[in-house]
Amino acid sequence: MSAKKSKKGSDKKESRFLHEVKEWGKAILYAVVFGTIIRLFVFETMLVPTGSMIPTINPPARLFVEKITYEYREPDYGDIVVFWTPYVDIESQKYLRGFDKFMDLFSPAKYRGHVKYVKRLVGKAGDVLELRRAPDYTAANPVYQLYVNGEIPPALEERRYVREGVFYDPSFYLGLAHPDDPSVRFSPYYRLYQAYKGLIEYTEFFETELEPLGLEKYITQDPSTGVVRVTVPEGFQFMMGDNSANSFDSRYFGFVPEEAIIGSPMLTIWPFSDFGPLKK
Questions:
Q1: Is residue 102 in some structural domain?
Q2: Number of domains in the chain
């Protein structure tokens, strides 16, 4: 009798254990499913390994990005925007953690394997952009302000930029896409083009999305003054980093497709010393 009771008691314990395991399994599964849904449609995270947005964002930082706002309105001048790189950034991929690589599986098919950038929006479709010397410009501090359609947007009045990339050489995008083309051999950026050959896969983006626009219509240079004006095409936006001297942004890689925009960073979650709402 005692043996039978012992066996029944053991069976009950085993049954209770299996029940608990199943319940925990369901809870974990639900958490993963709902977490993934929230991640896909509401929130996103990103790692910022570089200093392109110093002092606004100090690396290495992990940001919490909300994806709702720009579903209902387009970002405005001066807004900080997170977007998919329109090309594959091989160098930045090295900084991704295991979590980032796993969540990449749920990225839009077009941008799977791409990384996220965070910059400030400075130009919308149809805008004409021009860099002019800032009042505090000196030989030791050659900084510029960005004029949009002949005026400085209030949100950008305090921003200073370096006149590089396409604002210095209207054919910069061509050189970055075809660094071995004989026409760019004597460009002041020739060495930079060569350096970026193994860092980004840019040619496909240039040939499929930028070149067909007819860039000569959108990037012009005044032959008498050398001033370059950039018009933002429909369906694109122009992004620049706050740390202009050390920011790889639209001056270098071109216009950002509107469909590549992810959302707005709202919170720094790492390092803990910087934890809190992002100061914009």
A1: yes
A2: 1
CA 272 to chain centre: 22
* Structural domain harbouring 62: 42-277
Percent of the chain with pLDDT over 90: 61
Residue 267, H or E segment: strand 261-270
Instruction: Give the active site residues.
Output: 52, 119
Side-chain-facing half-sphere of 143: CA atoms under 13 Å: 16
In the DSSP assignment, the letter for residue 85 is -
CATH number at residue 121: 2.10.109.10
- The two structure tokens encoding residue 49: 């390994």
Residue 244 lies in a domain: yes
Name which of 9-23, 60-74, 96-110, 266-280 the model is least confident about: 9-23
| Cα 280 to Cα 275: distance, rounded to the nearest angstrom | 14
Alpha carbons 88 and 245: distance in angstroms, whole number: 22
How many angstroms separate the Cα of 214 from the Cα of each of 11, 95, 179, 219, 255? 76, 35, 19, 9, 13
Distance CA 146, CA 19 (A): 64
Segment 6-62, tens digit of pLDDT: 555 555 555 665 555 555 544 444 344 444 444 555 568 888 888 999 999 988 888
The answer to whether residue 26 is domain-embedded is no
Residue 232 belongs to a domain: yes
Segment holding 116, helix H or strand E? strand 116-123
From residue 238, alpha-carbon distances to 3, 118, 137 in Å are 79, 12, 24
Name every residue whose Cβ is closer than 8 Å to that of residue 187 and which is 6 or more positions away in sequence. 169, 171, 175, 193
Residue with the two structure tokens 């200093």: 51
Alpha carbon separation from 266 to 71, 158, 258, 263, 272 (Å, rounded): 15, 22, 20, 9, 15
- Predicted TM-score (pTM) of the model is 0.84
pLDDT in tens, 132-169: 999 999 999 999 999 999 999 999 999 999 999 999 99
